[in-house]
Amino acid sequence: xxxxxxxxxxxxxxxxxxxxxxxxxxxxxxxxxxxxxxxxNSEVIFVDGNPVAFKRDGQLVTVLTNAIVxxxxxxxxxxxxxxxxxTGGADVMAPGVRGxxxxxREKELVVVVDEKHGKSLAVGMSLYDSERFSAVKKGKVITNxxxxxxxxxxxxxxxxxx
Length: 162
Hints:
The chain has two domains: about 60 residues, Pre-PUA domain, domain 1 (Nuclear Transport Factor 2, Chain: A); about 80 residues, Roll (Archaeosine Trna-guanine Transglycosylase, Chain: A, domain 4), CATH 2.30.130.10. The protein has five helices and eleven strands; from the N terminus they run E-H-E-E-E-E-H-E-H-E-E-E-E-H-E-H. The relative contact order is 0.15. The strands form two sheets. It has a six-stranded mixed sheet with strand order 7-11-10-9-6-8. The chain is elongated, with a radius of gyration of 16 Å. It starts with a strand and ends in a 6-residue tail after the last helix. By secondary structure, the protein is α+β, with helices and mostly antiparallel strands.
């Protein structure tokens, strides 16, 4: 695959330790084959050929194809009217939110799902903690970091969908 770089062992260990802090990725071994691929301003991380996360501005963000991790993340459900906007890269606005599952802190990652099918649309950073989140009635509530159809999605999307 063009553009992928295999990391040296000394670089793998600290990265795997950082990845292991993400719920659902605790089982990664520093004996794994770790590769990275640069996509615009992000570095997509593959472990043993599977995309697990990407790093942008020093922050690790899980990829939308990693179902095990997404299942463990807090989720924010949006109405169907918000779907085309979120999958177009727009941030999540309070009026489109239909529900919140799980607890999270401000600036913590959440998965955004649609209310009809429960499909993962995006991974974003919440601008409020889960306590205050539902009380917010207007304005932006989640910064969209990764969404279905973005450049990272094009690299990590399941092979069956290509």
